[in-house]
Amino acid sequence: MNYREINKRLIDHLRHVSDDHELTIEQNKHIKVTGTFLGQQRSITLCCSPSSSYQTYLRSRLRRFLREIDHEMDLRPIF
User: Which of 62, 21, 67, 18 lies closest to 44 in space, CA to CA?
Assistant: First the structure.
């Protein structure tokens, strides 16, 4: 799967999970996605030119991020 497609699916899911369904997306060297989750401002960084192990890397980062905001989800639709 293309990394752009993975990033787009991830951003769409995070937008759905956020409190106000709004995210701020900034890109300098990496893509930084910021939103309000459970009343707190949180951010996650995505790669814009990832390596071959991008899915594994992003899956573990996303699991940690979702654990911090106490959200359970099945990651299969994204990856």
Answer: 62
Residues near 23 by beta carbon (within 8 Å), at least 6 away in sequence: 11, 14, 15, 33, 34, 35
* Residue 52: strand, helix, or coil: coil
Q: Which amino acid is at 27?
A: Q
Cα separation, 39 vs 68, whole angstroms:
13
Q: Identify the H or E element spanning 41.
A: strand 40-46
Domain ranges of the chain: 3-68
> What sign for the dihedral angle of Cα 77, 46, 27, 52?
negative
pLDDT in tens, 18-75: 999 999 999 988 899 999 998 999 999 988 767 778 888 888 888 888 888 877 666 6
Q: What is the pTM of this model?
A: 0.78
